[in-house]
């Protein structure tokens, strides 16, 4: 059972350099709204909503903001007619690197224009639907901390139906599974006494491109930063990898 998330490696490397930009209150609130609209407004019966709420609380969003977002999603919040859509955009960065963007928006034209501008200013271009998505596979990912017994992790992961796991740094691991098994795996790992820090769906590249040129690295990192800073953008995934020295260029 071997790990296979090279983009996760990139995100961790980048985190060590610039502390990873957290999601804004707006982005996290939008995720709650959509989750509540896609299912019941009760987190006990809606895994997507429960996960979105946990992320919001971890980011320090006040409970009243969370409750307001749930009400908007449920359609019970007065004077709110916002219609949000979940859209996946695709494009290319410098050197033809594939980039996948998940967005939540109430205005497709605005979001597309913002993304197109971000790509064009940073050596890339926004592509057509389907141009790079075939290079990625969506998986469920459970992040665990306090891993001191890898054999226990392996056994629990196998029993929970995981595909693989990867110890990413000291006492931290990521466990991968099919999307439909994510809730079951997360609960099983918790029941086995493991510390579950985060549960998410993530697009993983099937193959990666090694970036070794400093200018290309700088351009790609600036593009990723710009895309992640847009309020409509929820997640950005790319299929490149690079050494820590090049990651430092994002500073």
Automatic annotation (TrEMBL):
It comes from the Bacteria. It holds the Pfam family TACO1_YebC_N. The keyword Magnesium does not apply. InterPro entries: Integrase-like_N, TACO1_YebC-like_2nd/3rd_dom, TACO1_YebC_N, Transcrip_reg_TACO1-like, Transcrip_reg_TACO1-like_dom3, YebC-like. GO terms for cellular component: cytosol. It is found in: Cytoplasm. Residues 5-75 form the TACO1/YebC-like N-terminal domain. Its main location: cytoplasm. One of its GO terms (biological process) is regulation of DNA-templated transcription. GO terms for molecular function: DNA binding. Keywords: Cytoplasm, DNA-binding, Transcription, Transcription regulation. Residues 84-240 form the TACO1/YebC-like second and third domain. SUPFAM superfamilies: YebC-like. The keyword Cytoplasm applies. Belongs to the TACO1 family. This is Probable transcriptional regulatory protein BWI75_05220. It comes from Gloeocapsopsis dulcis AAB1 = 1H9.
């Amino acid at each position: 059972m071997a790990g296979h998330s090279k983009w996760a490696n990139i995100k961790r490397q980048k985190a060590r350099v610039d502390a990873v930009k957290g999601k804004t209150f707006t982005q996290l609130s939008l995720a709650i709204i959509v989750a509540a609209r896609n299912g019941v407004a009760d987190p006990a019966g809606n895994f997507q909503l429960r996960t979105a709420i946990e992320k919001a609380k971890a980011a320090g969003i006040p409970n009243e903001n969370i409750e307001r977002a749930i009400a908007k999603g449920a359609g019970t919040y007065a004077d709110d007619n916002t219609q949000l859509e979940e859209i996946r955009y695709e494009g290319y960065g410098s050197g033809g690197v594939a980039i996948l963007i998940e967005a939540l928006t109430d205005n497709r034209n605005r979001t597309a224009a913002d993304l197109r501008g971000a790509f064009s200013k940073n050596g890339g271009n926004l592509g057509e639907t389907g141009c790079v998505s075939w290079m990625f596979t969506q998986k469920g990912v459970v992040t665990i901390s306090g891993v001191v017994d890898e054999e226990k992790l392996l056994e629990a992961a196998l029993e929970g139906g995981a595909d693989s796991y990867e110890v990413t740094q000291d006492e931290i691991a990521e466990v991968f599974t099919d999307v439909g098994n994510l809730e079951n795996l997360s609960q099983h790992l918790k029941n086995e006494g493991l510390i579950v820090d985060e549960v998410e769906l993530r697009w993983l590249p099937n193959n990666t491109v090694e970036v070794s040129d400093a200018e290309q690295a700088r351009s790609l990192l600036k593009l990723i930063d710009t895309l992640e800073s847009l309020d409509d953008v929820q997640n950005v995934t790319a299929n490149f990898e690079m050494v820590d020295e090049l990651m430092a260029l994002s500073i």
